[in-house]
Write a structure and sequence with these properties.
- There is one protein chain.
- This protein has 300 residues and is mainly α.
- The chain has one domain.
- It contains eleven helices and no strands.
- Helix 1 packs across helix 5, helix 5 packs parallel to helix 8 and helix 8 packs across helix 9.
Length: 300
């Protein structure tokens, strides 16, 4: 079995979490920040028994593995769907020159790269995710610097009219990556409980940092933007003569690849566990099922 470290687990999971934050739709407010943080706390409480189970050398039964596999396929399809929807708010030359054909080309290329990365195995994916996470952190810090530099703190008082309970549910709906975490946690060498605590604490802090930064930048135009985090990255200007929207485009694409590849790699691993005779084309099958799920979700 491929064994991963706690750092690799967090890097893989949090890249996916950050990609989902990039794709946040609709208005956000301080209530959204609180809701996402509370949602992370709920997930932490729910994941602790699983961490204790793994600590006792527990092994998931095939029924649970099959349910997690279904979860991974559906969430992978949702990630493809998020990438498709959000790409209309980001300047991608292929897309803007080719309309829907361009979007299909970009999505197809992302799918091929995901297939290549996921085929290498979870351990290799974990090593690469550490580098991607470091680059994304630098981008996030630059965007946050631009947001803080604006000093328009009154934008934090923007009221979207959403209830705290509704925002908690919204945060939980955006946490489909917890399925991959449940699979990957069992592939760690040790430290299951500590890794779980660190992961969901980091998820809460990351969500708060991204949403607060977006709110500081877009609080005055929240009603006119569909994707507040994307808009914030496009408008953020941490340096006097340089915006970071080009860097954000690169990070967005890389994180889309890692988020989807993680689901595919975890799904391929579960396929091997559930069907020992299924030795070839597991990653290809996982990606194909995710694309099919994305097509269904896009049509709904």
């Amino acid at each position: 079995m491929n064994r991963i470290t706690a750092g690799q687990l967090c890097a893989m999971g949090l890249t996916g979490e950050l990609f989902v934050l990039f794709c946040t739709e609709g208005t956000i407010s301080a209530v959204t920040v609180a809701g996402y943080s509370i949602g992370a706390g709920v997930l932490l409480a729910a994941a602790m028994p699983l961490a204790a189970f793994y600590r006792r050398d527990g092994r998931l039964c095939r029924t649970v593995q099959a349910l997690l596999l279904l979860w991974l396929i559906i969430w992978g399809g949702m990630l493809f769907s998020m990438q498709w929807k959000t790409s209309r708010a980001i300047y991608i030359p292929y897309e803007n020159s080719g309309g829907s054909a361009g979007k299909l080309l970009v999505s197809g290329l992302i799918g091929l790269v995901c297939l290549y990365i996921s085929s290498a195995g979870i351990k290799a994916l974990g090593r690469a995710a550490v580098i991607a996470a470091a680059v994304g952190t630098l981008c996030l810090l630059a965007a946050a610097a631009g947001a803080v530099k604006s000093h328009e703190w009154e934008r934090l008082s923007y009221d979207s009219g959403a209830s705290l309970g509704g925002e908690v549910l919204r945060g939980l709906k955006a946490s489909g990556g917890a399925g991959a975490f449940a699979v990957l946690l069992g592939m760690q060498r040790k430290g299951y409980i500590r890794s779980t605590a660190v992961y969901f604490s980091a998820k809460a802090a990351l969500s708060a940092a991204v949403l607060v930064s977006a709110l500081l930048v877009t609080g005055g135009i929240m009603q006119t933007t569909d994707f507040p985090v994307v808009t914030a990255a496009q408008l953020s200007q941490p340096f006097p003569s340089q915006r970071i929207d080009a860097l954000f485009l690169i990070v967005f694409t890389v994180y889309a690849v890692f988020a989807i590849a993680l689901q595919a790699a975890a799904a391929a691993y579960l396929m091997r566990e559930i069907f020992p005779g299924f030795r070839r084309f597991r990653s290809l099958t996982a990606i194909a099922l995710m694309i099919a799920a994305a097509a269904v979700l896009t049509l709904l």
